[in-house]
Amino acid sequence: MGRPDRTRRSLLDAAVVVLSKDSSASLSEVATTAGVGRTTLHRYFPTRELLIRALVEDALDRVAEAISSAHPAEGPVVDALQRVTDTVVPLGPSLSFLHAEPEVYNARDLIRRWYEALEPVAQAIERGQADGSLRDDLPVKWVVDAYAGAILTAWDTADEGRIWLQDAPRLVMTTIVQGIATPPTDAP
Amino acid sequence: MGRPDRTRRSLLDAAVVVLSKDSSASLSEVATTAGVGRTTLHRYFPTRELLIRALVEDALDRVAEAISSAHPAEGPVVDALQRVTDTVVPLGPSLSFLHAEPEVYNARDLIRRWYEALEPVAQAIERGQADGSLRDDLPVKWVVDAYAGAILTAWDTADEGRIWLQDAPRLVMTTIVQGIATPPTDAP
DNA sequence: GTATTATGGAGCATTCATGTTCCATAATGG
DNA sequence: CCATTATGGAACATGAATGCTCCATAATAC
After folding, report:
1. What is the DSSP letter of A176?
2. Do A22 and B106 touch (CB under 8 A)?
3. Residues A99, A49: contact at Cβ < 8 Å?
4. d(C-alpha B111, C-alpha B107), whole Å
5. Among A52, B40, B54, B179, which is disulfide-ready with A178 (CB 3.0 to 4.6 Å)?
6. Contact assignment for A183 to B184 by CB distance below 8 Å
7. What pLDDT is stored for residue A142 in this prediction?
8. How far apart are CA B171 and CA A104, in angstroms?
9. What pLDDT is attached to residue A184?
10. 3-class SS of residue A181
11. Is B122 exposed, middle or buried (0-12, 13-18, 19+ CB in 10 A)?
12. CA at A3, C1' at D1: how many angstroms apart?
């Protein structure tokens, strides 16, 4: 990875951190956080809009790649979701950015691409409802959103220091899969 | 409610809608949405910061009031949470605003007040863990955040047209309380 | 109906992020 | 070591949002 590539990566990484906390932060802040001059930032991303666009692309790519690498179509569905959770939780800042950016919220095609990235998860959930491992009285769309939301919440909560990030995957899976109620005991 | 009060309410209502979608929207947009001149907006809220502050106060009051009116300390915990869910879901825009506003995210005292408003929920969850109706292997802080996050997700999902808002309370409760997995059957 | 209060439009100064250019310096590659 | 490329600082123009003032008009109260 040459110097240009490294600079570009620094900028994207800094931008995702800064802009996920405050989507209206100035480009100076982003450049400073990346340890780079504002001039250089503009050399890589001529306008703010292009930076945002590149960031969204990058975040979507990461999410899609993380999900795909967890092979959600293989093995028992709950195990598959566990693998997805483990790989996606560390993407917290990117998820947070995608969720916070009004550019994303208001652009149809970006919402579409977000759900395209989540499509393998949706398929895993459908598979689970079909094979009886997941309850089938919840809409798949809702389950996908609730699941993604739980991961995002976990990252935010860890970021605020209310839980440890290392516990996040377990908490997400227990809560989403089994719920917070005491499970009914198998009768004695 | 005199004219001034109505104008103030219009402004707060419009602001919460506009700013929850884009926290950097201009004050002109807010005024226009409220059906009010920008001059009038500035008469009620001299600076943007004061408007935001008033909005946060208002949103926190609404949440606290809604929770309190659901009497979360009474009756079976799961029933209590159902009542809280029913009353809080309609506050979607206010919740969404509190969650999106960087002012809130970065001000310690506002985060503190958010959790103060949720304190009755935290107590209900503690009560549930103590009386055996809720599993006790999840940190209360996490359960509170996961629950609040699920309500927020439900509102967002309904806003995007992926579920019906009228189904939201049921979906939240089923998902959070029982989880998405098929419950283990009581033995034959 | 009149007095009082609330409103909104027009205009203006200020501030700040943004985008751009130019040049000197530093890092990299041959 | 030299040529090339990348960087960053300074300076500038632009535009948009903000905060404010003044005045005419509309709504409300008495």
Report:
1. I
2. yes
3. no
4. 7
5. B179
6. yes
7. 98
8. 25
9. 77
10. strand
11. middle
12. 22
Name residue A13's amino acid.
Answer: D
Give the amino acid at B23: S
Q: How far is the C-alpha of B3 from the C-alpha of A16, rounded, in Å?
A: 45
CB-neighbour burial class of residue A91 (10 A; exposed 0-12, middle 13-18, buried 19+): buried
Q: Which long-range contacts (CB under 8 A, 24 or more apart) does A77-81 make?
A: A77/A124, A77/A125, A77/A127, A77/A128, A77/A131, A77/A133, A77/A134, A78/A128, A78/A133, A78/A173, A78/A177, A78/B181, A80/A124, A81/A121, A81/A124, A81/A147, A81/A173, A81/A176, A81/A177
A91 closest CA partner among A42, A123, A116, A58: A58
Q: What is the pLDDT of residues A76-86, one digit of tens each?
A: 999 999 999 99
**Token code pair at residue A40:** 């250089």
Residues β-bridged to residue B134: A181
Q: Give nucleotides in strand D with any atom < 7 A to a protein C-beta.
A: 5-10, 16-22, 27-29
The reply to whether residue B135 touches residue A182, judged by beta carbons under 8 angstroms, is: yes
Residue with tokens 């919440």: A153
Closest CA to A146 of B173, B107, B47, B113: B173
Instruction: Judge whether B161 is closer than 8 Å to chain A, CB to CB.
Output: no
pLDDT at B4 over 80: no
Q: Estimate to the nearest angstrom the gap between the alpha carbon of B29 and the chain centroid.
A: 23
| Cα–Cα nearest to B22, from A24, A96, A113 | A24
pLDDT digits (tens, 9 = 90+) for B26-68: 999 999 999 999 999 999 999 999 999 999 999 999 999 999 9
- Answer yes or no: are the C-beta atoms of A86 and A70 closer than 8 Å: yes
Nearest CB neighbour to A181, from listed B153, B156, B178: B178
Mention every residue, 6+ apart, whose C-beta is less than 8 A from residue A65. Answer: none
**Could you identify the residue written with the tokens 């943007």?**
B48
Of residues A98, A38, A42, the one with CA closest to residue A66: A98
Residue partners of B181: CB distance under 8 A and separation at least 6 = A78, A133, A134, A135, A177, A178
